[in-house]
Amino acid sequence: MRGTPFFFGDHRNDTAMDKATRIDLFSMRTAPMRAFHLTWMAFFVCFFAWFACAPLMPLIKREYGLSADQVANINIAAVAVTILVRLVVGPMCDRFGPRKVYSVLLLAGAVPVLGAALSTGYDSFLWCRLAIGAIGASFVITQYHTSVMFAPNVVGTANATTAGWGNAGAGAAQAIVPLLVAAAIALGAGAASAWRIALIVPGIAMPVMAYFYWRYTQDCPQGDFSTLRRAGIAIDGGKKGGWQSFLAACSNYRVWMLFVTYGACFGVEVFIHNMAAVYYVDRFQFTLAQAGMAAGSFGLLALFARALGGWLSDKAAARRGLDIRATLLFALIAGEGIGLYAFAHAPSAALAVISMLAFGLFTHMACGATYALVPFIDRKALGGVAGVIGAGGNVGAVAAGFLMKGLGSAQATLSMLGVIVAGTALCALAVRFSPEHKAREAALRESALAVNSGIAN
User: Fold this and answer.
1) Less CB within 10 Å around the terminal CB: N or C of the chain?
2) pLDDT, tens digit, 9 for 90 and up, residues 96-135
3) CA angle at residue 37 from 32 to 440, to 5 degrees?
4) TM segments (predicted)?
């Protein structure tokens, strides 16, 4: 399939045998571009399913008679298990390949989504919400897959774009799920049945997406890891000892600095997704549909803001080297913290929405800039690096959930988070690279561009 090409990066031809040095948005003729499009689509479906329950919480809270503490427990459960699964799927991608891991996650993740629709009370819903959290590990697979498909000159943009478009599934869930509820009610369903019917949509979409992912992607530009290993072909990523990559990642201080920064940006993003609808209903008396649209607008910023963060990182690095990526991340997280504090103290609904969109822009851009750095931390431990840093996002979300339980006030929690986030920006400045590391990455970049330039000529 090919239309008029639209490019990010260098305008050179790529082949299925080499990492892509450009993003040709209107083409799926190459393995990297098929992976590009199917990763963000799979990620979109996963995040839609992961956050489909969030805009339904006012209805579920009323039906099950949930206390504020029980709602907080559900929000924590939604992100807690993702920490463990993100740590696991990174090394699993190294061992089995992203194609197999993503397909299995999509199939398995549909079970608790449909289970939540059949829940009978607080306990059963809590356990389903906990299991649904595993779907959040889809992010790590998405970033892994694009990292092995795209060359250094454009990998930041590729990672950020696929993550951003996929992450928009969370915003889409906030906006669309209340409409599905309204449609079910209009067709004669009661409120208690309507929210259950709405959950069936992502529950069915996940196995459908699993089929397309299995059918049309491959692990890396050269093919699938298992086939390449049997042929004795060396590949970037896909080491047999997946847990060795995990241990290597854990011994790298840069990984832990980005673990913290990702907790500050993606952790806050997840926290906002889970509590925004209830916050707008409780504080500003929004209707369910109004709250869903307001909360959804925050998530939909990911459609362009994550990609913008990655693109800026790539462009800055092309001019000023690898270290500037970390400096950009520092500025974005500092801006996020200031904006989050302003959101907490917004005196009216209109100002709350405006300030939410402002700090949300910085939040999504910071997420993109973080994973624009990931491929350069340790190429021999890509799965471990991606998994540990990705888990940091969920640690941040869980920490924010416990902070809210401790303070007992959403507004106080948001205010405190703004201060904490601004402080964590310093961790980004601590990420620096040796002259040898920077020279090696510069050589890899030039080599990829030279190879593809030769193909073009």
Assistant:
1) C
2) 899 999 999 999 999 999 999 999 999 999 999 999 999 9
3) 40
4) 38-60, 72-89, 101-118, 124-144, 165-187, 193-214, 255-280, 286-305, 326-344, 350-374, 381-404, 410-431
Tokens of 327: 């400096």
The pLDDT assigned to 426 comes to: 95
Q: How far, in whole angstroms, is CA 261 from its chain's centroid? A: 14
Backbone angles phi, psi at 151, to 5 degrees: -75, 165
Residues forming beta bridges with residue 22, ordered by sequence position: 9
Measured CA to CA, the distance from residue 191 to residue 195 in angstroms comes to: 7
Domains in the chain (CATH in brackets) are 28-222+239-456 (1.20.1250.20)
CA angle, 85 then 416 then 351, to 5°? 105
Where do we find the tokens 């998994």? 387
